[in-house]
Amino acid sequence: MSQIKKLDIVRFAPRKGEGFYDTLKRKVDAYFTDNNIDPHGNASMKLKTVAMVSMYLIPYAVIVSGLATNLWLFYAMWLAMGIGMTGIGCSVMHDSNHGSYSDNKSLNKYLGKIIALVGGYEVTWKIQHNILHHTYTNIDGLDDDIDAGIFLRFSPHSKKYFMHRYQHWYAWFLYGLLTLQWATIKDFRQVYDYHKKDLLKKEKITLGKAMLQLAIYKIFYYLYIFVIPVMVTGIPFMHVLFGFLLMHFTAGLLLSCIFQLAHVMEECEFPLPSDDRKMENNWAVHQLLNTANFSPRSALVGWFVGGLNRQIEHHLFPHICHIHYKNIARFVKETAREYGLPYQEQPTFAHALVNHGRMLRKLGRD
User: Fold this and answer.
1) CA 324 to CA 112: how far, in whole Å?
2) Angle separating helix axes 349-365 and 237-260, nearest 10 degrees
3) Confidence at residue 154, expressed as pLDDT on a 0 to 100 scale
4) Residue 338 covered by a domain
5) What span, in angstroms and rounded, lies between the C-alpha atoms of 269 and 291?
6) Residue 5's pLDDT is what?
7) Burial class of residue 30 in the structure, from the number of CB atoms within 10 Å of its CB (0-12 exposed, 13-18 middle, 19+ buried)
8) Which of 79, 181, 198, 250 could form a disulfide with 186 if both were Cys (CB 3.0 to 4.6 A apart)?
9) Domain count, the chain
10) How many CA atoms lie within 13 A of 2 on its CB side?
11) What DSSP assignment string belongs to 222-269?
12) How far is it, in rounded angstroms, from Cα 71 to Cα 68?
């Protein structure tokens, strides 16, 4: 077996028990304590879970029941499933795998496995998202979320190719392939890569067990999502394939836009560590400087994207369920102002999309 090569991690500046985050944490803790509020999910979170899962499973039931005999209705059901996938990813799986859905760890664990229902694998997701992205946000070489291969350049420190001059045009198509990658090769590649980087043990799993578990997940996924519709609906194979691709493209595009608007923006800093692998700021200040919110006043957007329009609050308090972000946002904003720190926010989803497009163009040409 090849030698394990650990990540060359960085160290953030110490907080020293004072400053922005310590002040903010006292305010947020007091809010939950004084109002006798559980920072985890509540009844509205359970209702949302039912709604999001139904948004995915009801169209599937219509498809396999044979009711969608009209091709336009057939494709509409796959499109609806793509929207449901997005809702499950943002509002159910995300909180569960952060441990913020419930104070019951077993419930979080098993509900987090709902990612298998939409073609993913919770082990690789937790490593990429919880460990690498949330710890090393926008740090080139450590945050896998800004490592998009050679076709997209998300960091000013990544290698630039001539084709990147046009990425602000073609990126949107590649975004649509996000979940299709998860469902095919990316999870297998990541399992092996994270094994080489000695990260699988963070999830208390071996390479062999992870590969076996992943293979079982994928077999289950393709049996129910593809084989069963082909066998029971009487719809020609190519139409089922097109519907499947339409579902994934819809979910991939929506999820990519939701997550990229939080970090690949003109106002984000993309800092590099010093020669001795130390960062200038502490972790919390680093999060503020490299994260942005959007659509803070839209209840519909906030509901559908699982509070991920308030990524600042999420990055600072990932252990708090997203249904509380709106109420703690005022503490984050006022404390940032108190310490002379930015609170980066786009007024609408459209404004954020335009800003992100400008950033893609800038990264492709600078």
Assistant:
1) 20
2) 90
3) 96
4) yes
5) 9
6) 58
7) exposed
8) 181
9) 1
10) 10
11) HIIIIIHHHHHH---HHHHHHHHHHHHHHHHHHHHHHHHTTTSSTT--
12) 7
- Per cent of the chain over pLDDT 70 is 98
- Parent domain of 268: 20-365
**Which tens digits make up the pLDDT trace of 250-284?**
999 999 999 999 999 999 999 999 999 999 999 99
| 11 secondary structure, DSSP code | B
How big, in percent rounded to 5, are the helix, strand and coil portions of the chain?
A: 65, 0, 35
Enclosing H/E stretch for 338: helix 325-338
- What is the Cα–Cα distance from 124 to 189, expressed in whole angstroms? 10
The answer as to whether 354 is a domain residue is yes
Given a contact cutoff of 8 angstroms between Cβ atoms, the answer to whether 200 and 10 are in contact is: no
Mean pLDDT for the stretch of residues 97-113: 95
Q: Residue 294, SS3?
A: strand
Please give the average per-residue pLDDT across 8-31, as a whole number: 91
Check residue 151 and report its DSSP letter: S
pLDDT above 60 (res 347): yes
The whole-angstrom separation of Cα 147 and Cα 132 is 11
Is the pLDDT score of 4 beyond 50? no
Mean pLDDT rounded to a whole number for the chain: 94
Q: Are 332 and 313 in contact (CB under 8 A)?
A: yes
Q: Is residue 2 part of a domain?
A: no
pTM exceeds 0.90, yes or no: yes
**Residue 164: burial class (beta carbons within 10 Å; 0-12, 13-18, 19+):** buried
Are 325 and 310 contacting, i.e. CB atoms less than 8 angstroms apart? Answer: yes
Please give the share of the chain, as a percent, with pLDDT higher than 90: 93
234 within a domain of the structure (yes/no)? yes
Q: Is the pLDDT of residue 168 over 80?
A: yes
Other CB atoms within a 10 A radius of the CB of residue 106 amount to 8
Question: How far is the C-alpha of 293 from the C-alpha of 67, rounded, in Å?
Answer: 41
Q: Token pair for residue 234?
A: 């009487």
- For 188-199, what is the mean pLDDT? 95
The 10 Å Cβ neighbour count of residue 11 is 12
DSSP letter at 281?
Answer: S
156-160 average pLDDT score:
94
pLDDT value, residue 69: 85
Residues in the chain: 366
